[in-house]
Amino acid sequence: MSHTIDLRSDTVTRPTEAMRRAMAAAEVGDDVYAEDPTVSRLETLSADMLGMEAGLFVPSGTQGNLAALMAHCERGDEYIVGHNAHTYQFEGGGAAVLGSIQPQPVPLDDQGCMDLDAAMAAIKPDDAHFARTRLLCLENTWWGRALPMAYLKGAEDKARSHGLAMHLDGARLFNAAVAHDCPAADITRHFDSVSFCLSKGLGAPVGSVVCGNRALIDRARRWRKVLGGGMRQAGIIAAAGIHALEHHVARLAEDHQRAERLAAGLEAIDGLRVFRTGTNMLMLEPRVVTGTALAEALAGEGIRVNPGARLRLVTHLDVDDADIERVIAVMPRLLDSLASSEHAT
Ligand SMILES: *Cc1c(COP(=O)(O)O)cnc(C)c1O
Predict the structure, then answer these.
(1) 86 C-alpha to ligand 1 centroid (Å)
(2) Which tens digit of pLDDT belongs to each residue from 90-142?
(3) Nearest residue to 56 via CA among 27, 34, 78, 72
(4) Could you give the CA distance from residue 57 to residue 4 in angstroms, rounded to a whole number?
(5) What residues contact residue 113 under an 8 Å CB cut-off, 6+ apart?
């Protein structure tokens, strides 16, 4: 049988041979003593690419967002955030649990945008009854969608006029930059802090980087230690991050093209609703059979997808053109046999 095609997430990529060589050759030191030259190089490279002063290497995007939120906000402060944003829904409530920071969720539309007037209306008055609203937190890409540039500008203008700082959960920042065909710095210039993942489409095994001005990153560095993220000879994994930033950014366009090809191929098949995002993700809703049944049938063919009523399919470094064609090719047969077995019961 042919190899497994894993479309669950872009986190599943394995380091390439060249990346492993860079890791093996990395010069290292104890980064808690600020003596790992490879970690420092990754932090500087990241900050430069984002047009920011300083960077901080962290083990995960979740920790990067939390350390940034804690660097912006104190106990009793709050951040405004989308109702289904990662920093609200998918990080175990970390800001509240560990930071004593209250999230103020606001609805996002199907493009990942909030009504900015409604968001500003959620800012609390300066009064002991209320948490202090400090920060607006956006996410880009959001469920695979690159936020419109004009929206970022509008959000920044409004937030600044109300004295709020801006944080970007840019787990897939470079996918957004590639989708807009612009440098990442064109996106990040609207923010005071940005966290992005090396471990997703960029193909590194571990790690994220938080960037911002030096004072903010110093505070985040302190919180990283408190959160257990002070790592020692981390240059071994930082080297993978440097390799990813130097070799795997432009190629994200290939992932986006493969997601487009997959979407086009699947749209032509009866019984499927396809939702494109413009980056490396698409959602799939079977019309007659359940998403769970289809995910199971795909697994039987060695094709893994994130299950649910709406299946999520993600392209990445370890998915090639032949894989995409195989997924499109097996689909009609799977849907037919599922539909007929449903009919029989
Ligand atoms: C993956 C992801 C994160 C967190 O990254 P981890 O490294 O898995 O902790 C944060 N935000 C978004 C939008 C993500 O997709």
Answers:
(1) 7
(2) 999 999 999 999 999 999 999 999 999 999 999 999 999 999 999 999 999 99
(3) 34
(4) 32
(5) 147, 148, 151
